[in-house]
Design a protein that fits this description.
The structure holds two protein chains of two kinds. By secondary structure, chain A is mostly beta strands. In chain A, 0% of the residues lie in helices and 27% in strands. Chain A has a single domain, classed as Alpha-Beta Plaits, CATH 3.30.70. In chain A, a hairpin with a 2-residue loop joins strand 2 and strand 3. In chain B, strands 1, 2, 8, 9, 10, 11, 17 and 18 form an eight-stranded mixed β-sheet that branches. Chain B is globular. Chains A and B meet through strand 2 of A and strand 12 and strand 16 of B.
Chain lengths: 67, 391
């Protein structure tokens, strides 16, 4: 299935992230992964929907230009 | 390649109890419990409150080192800080989850479960041999486990459900973002839990004070991000703590998510069971999940042992787990979810009025049922809430 490239995608600021995992089930395309206790957003899966940004209890997620 | 019968991923209350019951039901099975973190029970991402009756089905809190405080009172705080002390709300406990989770894992180990810490499952696939092959990272090494049944007890951030093809996603309105401090040197009743409902303090959720000792408490809040003014949970908590406990020392801080949804549609697949927070088995009204997780773990452990002994770990047989859970608590959670939705329509002014009305009831008769009845008589605008409650 072809995916439309979004203008912006989510990124995790690992200096702020508390690794609580709250964002994982909130991501509709399941683009956020937790491995070796680090959360990362898969830039090829993120659709730029921003649903993970506001719920982060510490504000560790932000949207950046897809480049 | 280690070959095991039951592989449990996550050594929280659901995982440890599942391992314990699986091994107890069939002592000749190889049961392995994996914990991603280097210590069971840490970090604590929990307000640590639990009801007495549910807890006692699994562990005796009397004189234990993992029960921090016995709770005999529930105090509701209106948005304007009016206190409503409830009568007859039963007993509860504030746990020390670091010790409690370790205690449960030790109980599992005592019946013969192999507990591995610092072991993170990173993926799994179903192979032609009818087993799950689970990739596990352990001290930097990759190990492949073969398992007849995998029990996913890996919490809010569950990956096992995802790997098994189950839908564990949560709509944003049903996820509460939580932040909590352990505060020292605060003046609250150490025998009471305090719950404050207010859209200004914790929109869509509530704020709590759960005492762990005299002068020490878990002080936190959960909110629904879609209803906030743009601040995150930690910022809301900072405002509340600055107002209520300006001189307290903050000795610990944690954040996390509580899923206030209902049980996922399907908690099982071929050779897979999902239990606890991972399957959204949380009371959507209270956000409580500890006893729910243990009860689900008990069902999952027994189901897994029975299935392996019967030589059939297929999805159809494992469906008995989902059915048993729904009958035990899953159906109740559907009801609580409707109450939660109804309560979302109550504004701060109505909560303040309700608190003053409730305080006109004699203290010894101020039960939750009576408070609710009074609320309906004095505040007819709440009748739709009651109607939805009983539907």
């Amino acid at each position: 299935m072809r995916r439309v490239t979004p203008d912006t995608i989510a990124v995790v600021d690992l200096a702020v992230c508390d690794r609580c995992g709250l964002c994982l089930p909130l991501c509709p395309p399941e683009a956020i992964h937790l491995e070796l206790n680090l959360l990362t957003v898969d830039r090829d899966q993120c659709t730029g929907c921003e649903k993970c940004v506001a719920p982060c209890p510490v504000g560790a997620l932000a949207m950046v230009a897809y480049a | 390649m280690p070959d095991v019968d039951v592989l449990i991923i996550g050594a929280g209350p659901a995982g440890s109890v599942a391992a314990w019951y699986a091994k107890q039901a069939a002592p000749n099975l190889d049961v392995v419990l994996l914990e991603r973190d280097r210590a069971v029970g840490s970090p604590v991402r929990c307000a640590e409150g639990v009801g007495d009756a549910g807890l006692r089905e699994f562990a005796n809190p009397d004189g234990s080192d993992w029960a921090a405080r016995k709770i005999t009172k529930v105090i509701f705080l209106a948005p304007d800080d009016t206190e409503v002390v409830l009568a007859d709300c039963g007993l509860g406990w504030i746990l020390d989850r670091t010790r409690f989770d370790a205690y449960l894992a030790a109980e599992a180990a005592a019946v013969g479960v192999q507990v591995l810490v610092g072991a993170e499952a990173t993926g799994m696939s179903r192979n032609g041999d009818g087993r799950w092959h689970v990739r596990v990272k352990e001290r930097g090494r990759d190990e492949l486990y073969r398992a007849r049944i995998v029990i996913g007890a890996d919490g809010v951030e569950t990956m096992v459900g995802r790997w098994a093809g189950l839908d564990t996603r949560v709509p944003a309105r049903d996820m509460e973002s939580c932040a909590q401090y352990v505060l020292q040197g605060i003046d609250v009743n150490p025998d009471a839990i305090y719950l404050q409902f207010s859209n200004a303090i914790a929109p869509g959720g509530y704020a709590w004070i759960f005492p762990k000792a005299v002068g020490v408490a878990n002080v936190g809040l959960g909110l629904v991000a879609l209803k906030t003014d743009g601040r995150n949970a930690r910022q809301y908590l900072d405002s509340w703590v600055a107002r209520r406990f300006p001189s307290a020392a903050r000795t610990s801080y944690t954040v996390g998510g509580v899923i206030v949804h209902t049980t996922i549609k399907k908690t099982h697949a071929d050779g897979v069971l999902i239990a606890g927070d991972a399957a959204h088995m949380i009371n959507p009204l209270s956000g409580g999940g500890i006893t729910n997780a243990m009860k689900a773990g008990r069902l999952a452990g027994r189901t897994a042992a029975d299935a392996i002994c019967a030589g059939d770990t297929g999805e159809r047989r494992l469906a008995t787990y989902h059915k048993a859970w729904m009958e035990l608590l899953g159906e109740d959670h559907l009801k609580y979810y409707r109450i939660k939705q109804a309560l979302e329509g109550v504004d701060d002014a109505s909560f303040n009025k309700l608190a003053r009305t409730a305080n006109n009831i004699a203290p010894d008769k101020r039960t939750i049922g009576r408070v609710f009845t009074h609320a309906l008589i004095r505040h007819p605008q709440l009748i739709p809430v009651a109607a939805r409650f009983f539907v």
